[in-house]
């Protein structure tokens, strides 16, 4: 029974129940995990109808699947998250940075510390965040360290340190600090990080005035500096509102097989910043988006009071003009009006109840049941517009990504066109570049790389073992390799390059031109790249007369030449190292009496490397029809040698 019959039979048995499905490839590897409210409908959809390019790529690799039935959509959501983390399927949205968000942590110790961490543990510590980046977390910690005297040292010292003298530590190393004192500090830090910085600021202002009135000017100055630090930190939070809820506002956009997810963090009515992720997706857009959200919260201990999710969005939605500017203006107005909207609960409930997207509503309901907090898919009003703003930011970010890619491609192809003009060529679509590599003439090899429209075409790279040249003769090596390459081009009617690039100056150029014109009758332009004393690309020479071509060192054309020269050199050096390693293996085995070429190949094929041959027992050689005497000689000879590098048994694409 073939794969199609197997899948067809299994599809007929799918139940009308919620659950998770696991798609497998030919090797039995799980390549995609998904969840469904109705397994029968969702799984069948992969094998019927038409799909976009990325989904087709996924479906083309599916040869089997299995499923797990759950009792609810919420259980399917959690199970999907766990399965993705366990199997890391190739085609799933993977929140690879789900544990890299920085948090502020108050440790659960007898003498607690405040620290920035990216690891969330079940250690009864207090976590605050996540912060959009480590800089924001470090700046907040720096401010709190000045204000609250928790210990700073990782290991308790034997005597007080400078922090105590600066008033930033209670010195538990020498003095007894009771738990109520720490509880008060932790309460104040928690209040500050939960949005109560205005109350802290007022308290500091009061203390500053009291210190000034009592002529404690140094203390008044310290308090003033703390107030200034608070102002500087909070000044970056552009959006202010009287609303007191912590919210995470999600939005996403999809286009050309890519998804961008934006999270707008609102804490105590202040938008702290945003987090953006862009990645390719292969399944259903909204399902993969919900998978991202679930993974995000699976290890996030600092949950908001409310999560706002979007409805399903269509691919490639056109963004409105002036999106970035409009988003910033709209955000301030929306946030300022949220407090009036949130005074009454019925509206929030009606938003969730009136959701028109069944998938969005069921996903939000499952997430709400799992997290135990309010998850809404707004249908109207200001919350709907807040989600719209997050989606708008996603569309802008995705559009920017594609424009950067297009710009880079234009610059690359433009550099090839400009280089062709500088060389007087009508077109410069295909460039073939050569480089030779040897060490004092041993294991001489050469390599060719191909660039098409300024971009490497790696499938067309070729490697050459030099056959006829003895010793380090770079000119003759170039003649042999050029002859072999372009004899094959003529014989097999392969595409001819618009330009040949050799590594070297007049001698290498002349050698290549002599073979091309006088032996093969080909008149392809040849140029050489000369390096300076620091082994960097310095000059471009062209033609048999090796005339220099003036190119600005900071031009895109010169940068393209550097890339070509670096790439062909890398490729040649890599091949040379492989061949040198193989020759060392060969010479060690060939030096053993009774081991010829045939037996050497059999030994390497069976054991895989010299190291494994050395580790073998006498019995291991019997399957190769090698007796104990010869096996003993092999082991004795190899163990007298220094440890060798493992032999590379991979096949080479050589000519």
Q: Helix proportion of residues, in percent?
A: 40-55%
> Which sheet architecture does the biggest sheet show?
8 strands, mixed
Q: How many H/I helices?
A: 20
Tell me the overall shape. extended
Report the uncertain regions: 235-242, 317-356, 641-655
- End-to-end separation: 42 Å
Oligomer: single chain
Radius of gyration: 34 Å
Descriptive report:
By secondary structure, the protein is of the alpha+beta class. The protein has 20 helices and 19 strands. Helix 4 packs across helix 10, helix 4 crosses helix 13 and helix 5 packs antiparallel against helix 9 (217-235). The model is unreliable at 235-242, 317-356 and 641-655 (pLDDT under 50).
Record the SSE blueprint:
Elements (H helix, E strand, L loop, with lengths): L2 H9 L7 E6 L5 E7 L2 H7 L7 H8 L3 E6 L3 H15 L15 E4 L7 E4 L8 E3 L5 H14 L14 H4 L13 H15 L3 H17 L3 H19 L11 E9 L2 E10 L2 E11 L4 H14 L7 E3 L14 H20 L2 H9 L4 H14 L2 E3 L4 H42 L7 E10 L2 E11 L2 E2 L5 E4 L8 H19 L6 E5 L2 H14 L6 E6 L5 E6 L4 E3 L6 H35 L6 H11 L2 H5 L13 H12 L16
Parallel strand pairs: 7-10, 10-11, 12-16, 16-17
Antiparallel strand pairs: 1-2, 1-3, 4-5, 4-6, 7-8, 8-9, 12-13, 13-14, 13-15, 17-18, 18-19
Summarize the structure.
The strands form 4 sheets. Strands 12, 13, 14, 15, 16, 17, 18 and 19 form an 8-stranded mixed β-sheet that branches. The protein has 655 residues and is an alpha+beta fold.
């Amino acid at each position: 029974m073939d794969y199609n019959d197997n899948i067809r039979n299994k599809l007929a048995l799918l139940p009308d129940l919620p659950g998770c499905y696991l798609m497998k490839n030919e090797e039995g590897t799980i390549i995609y995990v998904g969840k469904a409210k109705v397994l029968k409908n969702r799984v069948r959809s992969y094998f019927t109808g038409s799909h976009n390019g990325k989904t087709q790529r996924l479906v083309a690799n599916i040869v089997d699947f299995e499923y797990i039935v759950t009792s609810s959509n919420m259980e399917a959501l959690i199970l999907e998250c766990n399965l993705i983390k366990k199997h890391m399927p190739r085609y799933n949205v993977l929140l690879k940075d789900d544990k890299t968000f920085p948090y502020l942590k108050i440790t659960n110790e007898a003498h607690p510390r405040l620290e920035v961490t990216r690891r969330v543990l079940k250690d009864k510590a207090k976590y605050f965040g996540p912060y959009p980046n480590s800089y924001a977390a470090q700046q907040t910690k720096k401010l709190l360290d000045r204000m609250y005297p928790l210990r700073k040292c990782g290991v308790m010292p034997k005597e007080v340190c400078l922090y105590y003298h600066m008033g930033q530590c209670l010195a538990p190393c020498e003095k007894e600090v009771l738990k109520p004192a720490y509880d008060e500090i932790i309460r104040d830090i928690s209040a500050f990080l939960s949005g109560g910085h205005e109350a802290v600021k007022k308290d500091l202002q009061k203390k500053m005035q009291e210190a000034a009135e009592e002529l404690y000017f140094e203390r008044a100055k310290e308090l003033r500096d703390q107030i200034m630090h608070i102002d500087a930190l909070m000044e970056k939070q552009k959006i202010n509102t009287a609303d007191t809820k912590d919210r995470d506002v999600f939005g996403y956009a999809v286009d050309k097989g890519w998804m961008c997810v934006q999270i707008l963090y609102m804490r105590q009515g202040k938008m702290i910043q945003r987090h953006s992720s862009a990645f390719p997706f292969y399944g259903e857009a909204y399902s993969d988006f919900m998978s991202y959200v679930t993974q995000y919260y699976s290890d996030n201990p600092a949950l908001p009071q409310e999560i706002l999710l979007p409805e399903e969005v269509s691919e490639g939605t056109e963004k409105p003009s002036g999106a970035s500017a409009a988003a910033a203006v709209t955000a301030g107005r929306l946030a300022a009006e949220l407090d009036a909207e949130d005074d009454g609960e019925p509206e929030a409930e009606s938003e969730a109840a009136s959701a028109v997207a069944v998938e969005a509503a069921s996903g939000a309901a499952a997430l709400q049941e799992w997290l135990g907090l309010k998850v809404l898919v707004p249908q109207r009003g200001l919350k709907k517009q807040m989600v719209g703003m997050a989606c708008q930011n996603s569309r802008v970010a995705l559009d920017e990504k594609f424009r950067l890619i297009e710009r880079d491609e234009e610059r690359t192809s433009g550099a090839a066109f400009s280089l062709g003009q500088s060389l007087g060529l009508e077109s410069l679509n295909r460039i073939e570049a050569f480089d030779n590599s040897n060490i004092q003439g041993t294991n001489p090899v050469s390599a060719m790389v191909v660039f098409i429209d300024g971009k490497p075409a790696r499938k067309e790279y070729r490697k050459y073992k030099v056959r006829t040249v003895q010793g380090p003769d770079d000119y003759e090596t170039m003649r042999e390799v050029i002859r072999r390459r372009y004899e094959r081009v003529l014989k097999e009617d392969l595409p001819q390059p618009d330009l040949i690039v050799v590594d070297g100056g007049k001698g290498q150029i002349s050698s290549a031109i002599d073979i091309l014109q006088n032996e093969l009758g080909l008149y392809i332009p040849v140029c050489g790249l000369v390096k300076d004393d620091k082994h960097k690309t310095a000059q471009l020479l062209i033609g048999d007369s090796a005339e220099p071509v003036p190119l600005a060192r900071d031009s895109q054309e010169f940068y393209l030449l550097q890339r070509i020269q670096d790439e062909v050199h890398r490729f040649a050096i890599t091949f040379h190292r492989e061949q040198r390693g193989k020759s060392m293996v060969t010479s060690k085995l060939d030096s053993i009496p009774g081991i010829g070429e045939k037996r050497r190949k059999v030994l390497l094929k069976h054991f895989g490397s010299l190291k494994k041959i050395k580790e073998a027992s006498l019995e291991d050689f019997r399957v190769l029809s090698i007796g104990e005497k010869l096996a003993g000689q092999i082991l004795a000879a190899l163990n007298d040698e220094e440890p060798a590098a493992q032999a590379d048994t991979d096949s080479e694409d050589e000519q």
